Amino acid sequence: MGESLRRELGLFRATMIGIGGTLSAGNFVILGHAASLAGSTIVIVVFVCGIISLLTMFSYCELGTVIPHAGSEYTFAKVAYGGFISFLTGWFEWLSNMFYATLSAIGVAYIISYVIPINVPLVAIFVVILFAAVNIRGVKEVGTVETILTIVVLTILGIYAWNGWSYGLSMEEFKLSAPQGLIGIFAATAYLFELYLGAEAVAVAQAEIKNPEKTIPRAMILSSVILIILYTTIVYVTLKVVPPETIAGQTSPITFAAEQIMGKLGAILVTIALAIAGLAATNEAIMAQSRTVYALSRDGYFPKAFSKIHKRFGTPYVAVVLCSIFTIAFTSTGLVNFVVYAVNLGFILGFSIVNLSLIKLRKEKPRLKRPFKVPLYPFTPIAGIIISLTLLLFIDPWVMVLGAEATILAYLAYHFRMVGYHRIRIAIGGINLGIGCLAALLSYLMKTGVVILSGIPSSLSEMVIQIFVLVSAVYLLAGVLNVTAKT
Amino acid sequence: MKLRGAVFKVVGVTQSVIGALAVIFAYLLYFDYFDLQNLLNISGDLPLYLLVLLLFGLFSIISGFCFICEK
What we know:
The complex is a heterodimer.
Chain A: H1 11-22, H2 25-29, H3 31-38, H4 42-66, H5 73-80, H6 83-115, H7 120-137, H8 143-165, H9 181-192, H10 201-204, H11 212-241, H12 244-247, H13 253-298, H14 317-331, H15 336-364, H16 379-391, H17 397-419, H18 421-447, H19 458-483
Helix pairs in contact in A: 1-8, 1-11, 3-9, 4-9, 4-11, 4-15, 4-16, 5-6, 5-15, 6-7, 6-13, 6-14, 6-15, 6-17, 7-13, 7-14, 8-11, 8-13, 11-13, 13-14, 15-16, 15-17, 18-19
Chain B: H1 2-30, H2 36-39, H3 46-68
Helix pairs in contact in B: 1-3
């Protein structure tokens, strides 16, 4: 798809892609919870997260310039490992992008809710549906608009930082505090890890970048450094104005601080900036996850239907719809912290695989032309892996359970593909017949009074029986059709 | 062949809809919309019901999609 694209993006625009891909409304909403974990130490946490991210960005730079037309963790793993590892990488890339889209949409809604009272999950769902439609329709020539919007967002955040610098506590009065000690600091680091996700978008857009061998590494490193300075400054300014314990209770901490510094106008200005950033991030995350599903389907891991291209719009519309359904399901919960940890889990694994892919390719293909080389190899990628994996210890246990389940599901899905479609159909048919028989038996037992639904009104009980009869009929028929399906 | 195709589509769509409804029902049950947990007399066994509903729902959607995509 990318071969026909014209190379028009220079260093400036490529850097803006990296910054624009990272700035998301969700990133500013989650600062409140991070402040409750690490107090004013989050200034240092934000800086450290940037450095950890930078370690892996070096690997992205090298792999992005070595592997033609690659850009995502999935493609890197495909070249370096192939098989189940590459499938698992694509699987987690899809899931983490799905959670990132969820976080961005919820973030936009929370940011808006600060100035206008709205139903947060409902608005977030609307944002997802809107950008699902945009992605099905396909938008061309958005590069320039995105660059302009990123500049607008950066300018507003710059105004906020400039005004806030001389407001509130002086540098001498500002004291670092960590209410939960070292554990809280580590927990905040694991929580805020996702702040810098998105700078790798430069590698994804490499087919459109002029002189990619030089521009990609420069743009990625430049955007990472700018983001480290930007986030650290914004968090420092915010904590100078508002104490961490006050920030912890805010739906939009930055907007709250902007209101203290610049009044209502400041709050509105920051809301506009963060909403723009959030909308752009939602769009990019929906696009990224649909492209991952498209690639997995194209490579035969997912059903071929998921790689169908819309005749008129030329977009992978089935993948977009599928991804949007899952995104909407999680968006409707409005759960921020769970989604943040889920994003982090996916990207921590993704980052580790990128670093491992780099080490493997250096070892097995030493003669590959490498326009950019990771400095201090092998210490940089190894440090990237160890530090990222250490953060897993501080991720919400429920998210870890979800991650384990996702891995088992990926393993099953991968091996289903290996055993062949016909055998899968027979297996599905068998399960259908089983469910159909069970539903028929339960409806019979309930009808004859052998099984009684206690504590439920009789009218509702009758309805349950009818549902069981319908389910048994549909599943028995589905079972027969599956088992007798042609090879 | 046209009839066979139509039957596949109808069964596929029905299964997918049943699956989607099961997932939505699990969601409503979890967040206790319409006081469902009390209405259905569910207390300690909620995680089990959610697991069954989600597994059933996801399986139905997958099975339904297989029929819908059948050529």
